[in-house]
Amino acid sequence: MNEPTRGRNKNYGWLLFFTVVNWLVIAYVIFRVDPETMKDFIFPGSYLPMVIITAGGVFWVLSILFMSAARALRWTIGIILFLLLRLLGLGTPMNGALILGLLVSWEVYQLKSKTKIETKE
To answer: How many domains does the chain have?
Structure first.
């Protein structure tokens, strides 16, 4: 018997819609909102609303590219972490390389553990 494959016939229209809407919101905030109004929103000097909106935009784009929400979330956290380090003046190329190395090693670990589980079955 043929079992239905999960996730093959999904409609990604909503994903594309949310991506476009989120990036339009980012563009609106960049062009219309004064940075000083969001600089000290909850945490002083954090630009928290812009960080949250940008994280959403990056997540939606990476979800489309990777077709995996878990992988997109991992890479979004890495990218936002580097952007926050840049905001604090600590975002050097060395820190970027270290974050990239962590993300790549995490991906390799996930790939290896996934293949081990498949070979055991």
So the answer is: 1
pLDDT in tens, 24-36: 999 999 999 998 9
Start-end of H helices in the chain: 13-32, 35-39, 48-66, 69-87, 93-120
In a domain, 74, yes or no: yes
Is the Cβ–Cβ distance between 62 and 78 less than 8 Å?
no
Instruction: Label residue 7 by pLDDT band (50, 70, 90).
Output: low
Half-sphere exposure of residue 7, counting CA atoms within 13 Å on the CB side?
Answer: 3
Q: How far is Cα 91 from Cα 79, in angstroms, rounded to an integer?
A: 11
Quote the domain boundaries for residue 80.
Answer: 13-120
Distance CA 37, CA 26 (A): 15
Taking the C-alpha atoms of residue 121 and residue 117, their distance in angstroms, rounded to an integer, is 7
